[in-house]
Amino acid sequence: MSLRLKLLLLGLATLILPWGGCQYAREMESALREGEQSSLQAVSQTIAASLQGRTDLLYREALAPPDAPEAPAVPVPPGADPVRAFLNPGPYDLKPLALTAAPLLDGYPDDWPHDPSAWAYFGKDDLHRFGILTGVYERMLYVLLEVRDEHPLFDAAGTNTLDPATFGDRVWLGFEDSGGEQHQVFLAATGPGSVTARRIETGEYGQQNAPIEPRIHGAWQLTGHGYRIELRVPMSMLGNGFGVLVDDRDARGADPVSYGTLGSDDLHTLGRLIVAAPELASYLTQFMQPGLKLAVTTPSGRVLARADALAQVSGLGSDPPILARLYRRFVDRPGAQPLLESPAPIYDRDHRTLIGRLEVTQTATGWIRLRDHALMRMLNFTLSTSAVAVTAMFAFAAWLAVRLSRLRRASESALTRSGLVTSFPETDSRDELGDVARSFSTLLQRLNEYTSYLRTLAGKLAHEIRTPLTIVRSSLDNLESEQVPASARAYLTRARQGSERLSAILIAMGAATRVEEAIGSAERVSFDLVAVL
């Protein structure tokens, strides 16, 4: 692994700074969430305290009217608390949803919330059943009926609506007004489409007619298992009681099979309409702030009224920067809820009876933006620092690599034809590489001196040995002229041969020195070596 790569990997270790920044941002987010949760809890408890004992505000009709039906859905025993009895729904009571928008009256359920638990089902047997879904939006009651009927039958077209021979399937609506008086209207249609409600009136001489009730609008559509009716009824018409009765006929003019939440003999309501007072929604709006949602529910969890301003956050429409959204991928915990919720109970005046619940929901946009702002500044700084550190280390590694390459090339080319090169790069540097370069330079200088000594050693030896050799040769010549024993002649011969060999060596060393000097001073000529070989 090269030095550049090693230093680059070492520089990447500075990325621990952004990771530490992400961990710090998470801790800061937890602290902000806890603070917002505590503040939201205080808000919910304050609003719930203001609704304490306000059953007249939470429920449109907290007490049953004096002339209630003979068989009320929830009988109130003598001495019992009427508020507690009202909060215990009966089998025929209807609990409308708090709608966020008005459904389109077309006879189709597309505009209604998909909440299976909000449906109420009534019937006589498996073949005679209907489901009812109710909702309230801006002082209007919306009703969605799903009637099971194997043979749906419309009224005869162009006939008197009060002629029994023309009767088909009909639906009766029964309700009490604010004074407790019972009223009934019926719905009859000659085909799919819009449907009108009619009430039966008796004239001065006993004749009956069926004028249209213009305040009630709706639509009637056929389905695969029967038919569906969608209605809109003003809340100003309604009091405490409300019910529906279905007259199912297999043929026009036949006796109907009646079932529902109205008395089959007098069409009086058997159940109540548990709905919030219209003033409750306006009461909640005074506590609204951008990014806040308030909802008041029954003790069982059914929403009575809500005020929603989650989308009305300050700076609406300004999306977070792309860099902030990228940082969120590393900071946001999987499954973290972007909303804060704080429920609070609503008690009656006795501080014991639970009459409702308040649910306060707040978006996390405020503190998330604070976190994003701090996170962007911190991560931008740490990432910039890491980038600068990595770049600096990479540049430093490249600089070191260049200097080391110069030392390597200088050491490889130190031996030339003319001898050793004593000049070495980086010797002027004051760091460790400079020390290495100076050590190499000193070593090469000493090696060059030793090599120079070896080159001149032959000439020096030839000069120094020639004089003793001459003395030895003259001494041998003198001995040969003297009378020496025959046994010593062999030694003289051997001494003579040694001196001659040593003289030849001196002559060869001198010739080699002269040849080397001649080659060094000769002019270089390029030639083809093939011809020589």
Number of domains: 3
As a percent range, the share of strand residues is: 15-25%
Q: Radius of gyration, Cα only, in angstroms? A: 55 Å
Biggest β-sheet description: 11 strands, mixed
Helix content: 25-40%
Q: How many β strands by DSSP?
A: 19
Counting DSSP H or I runs of 4 or more residues, the number of helices is 10
Give the uncertain stretches in residue-range form: 63-82
What structural class do you assign from the helix and strand content?
Answer: alpha+beta
CATH topology of the largest domain: Immunoglobulin-like
The pLDDT mean sits at 81
Could you give the distance between the termini? 45 Å
Which sequence of SSEs, written as H and E, runs from N to C?
HHHHEEEEEEEEEEEEEHEEHEEHEEHHH
Shape-level CATH architecture of the largest domain: Sandwich
In CATH, what is the class of the largest domain?
Mainly Beta
Provide a descriptive summary of the structure in words.
This protein has 533 residues and is of the alpha+beta class. It is rod-shaped. Helix content is 40%, strand content 22%. It has three domains: 3-58 and 278-316 and 335-380, Beta-Lactamase (2-Layer Sandwich), CATH 3.30.450; 82-260, Immunoglobulin-like (Sandwich); 458-532. Helix 1 (3-12) packs antiparallel against helix 7 and helix 8 packs antiparallel against helix 9 (486-521). Strand 16 and strand 17 form a beta hairpin.
